[in-house]
Amino acid sequence: MKLREFLKSKLFLRHFLLSLAVGVVILWVLLKLLDVYTMHGRSTTVPDLTGLTEKEVSTILRKMDLRFVVNDSIFDDNRPKGTIAGQDPAPGREVKKNRTIYLTKVAVLPEMVPMPDLRDLSLRQAIALLDAYGLKIGNMEYRHDIAQNAILQQKFNHGNLEPGTMVEKGTAIDLVVGRGLGTAIVTVPALFGKTRSEAIATLNSLSLNLGSEDYLDDQDDDPRVYQQTPDPTARRQQLQAGSSVNLVYRSGRKFDFDQYLDDLLTLPVPLLYGKTPDEVRTALEENSLELGNETFENNVSRQDARVFKQEPDYDQESLIKKGTKVNVWYRSVNQF
Predict the structure, then answer these.
(1) Contact indicator for 87, 29 with CB cutoff of 8 Å
(2) Cα(16)–Cα(106) distance, rounded to whole angstroms?
(3) pTM over 0.85
(4) C-beta separation of 178 from 146 below 8 A
(5) Torsion angles phi and psi, residue 320, rounded to 5
(6) Domain 267-335: which topology?
(7) How far apart are CA 213 and CA 249, in angstroms?
(8) In whole angstroms, what is the distance from residue 321 CA to residue 314 CA?
(9) CATH annotation of 43-106
(10) Counting beta carbons within 10 angstroms of the beta carbon of residue 137, is it exposed (0 to 12), middle (13 to 18) or buried (19 or more)?
(11) Tens digit of pLDDT for each residue in 32-43?
């Protein structure tokens, strides 16, 4: 039989259709087996696991037919130790059953760093170096020493802390600082409206310590300085280096600090007409204002000088911010 005749025969057609049917059946079976193997149509949404403990994660994922592996850990002082800090796949992703979720956990053991040698450094250098190591400034004690503003000793828990000693990151290190042979006096800064970290940084830069702290609102609700003792708005306040400033906080989200600061840090323009130079200085200091330019007409002596002009000018309705410079002009008392 010739090939052309065979291809046209019923025998060939019957075998061709039979093989085609068998092929279709085999392909269908393979696709079904592939669906079973890949769990086609049986997906689940990855939950958000951040902030949970490993035990809580195990309970949740077991019910969802998912698995997990903790493959990394990080140090984070702002999160509870042992909780989940990150995950892959991310929350909300669709995955198949039995998929493994890879987790990053906040380390339970604290990160340790070697204590740097701060001795003989200036206070500014010591603060910068501690910050670079992830350490904090603790209490500052001032001693009379010729090395003014230099670090004499570094301490922790009232004991000397040797350089190279491993300490927990974030530890507050107490410093003994040279005061010089005289008495170091610093002006108390106005910390109102500052965050806690900003207030502490300002105090440290001025060689002052953080005293007691009180929170009138939720401690985690963006606390900002509401009151301080000593209060520099009452009058110019000065303290010895190493003294403490007590702070009271209110919520930066709930309390209107903009209006509060406007009311707190402004005052009426004082009347200086007819005052002597010494009386002017006293009046400005009592009102937390600064003396600007003093102009003496016709070379009048300070003893005979009296104010006849001031800038800003006196006005019962006008308000100026504390710390503003006031310029004054004097003429002889005999010209009044």
Answers:
(1) no
(2) 66
(3) no
(4) yes
(5) -130, 155
(6) Trypsin Inhibitor V; Chain A (3.30.10)
(7) 8
(8) 14
(9) 3.30.10.20
(10) buried
(11) 777 666 555 567
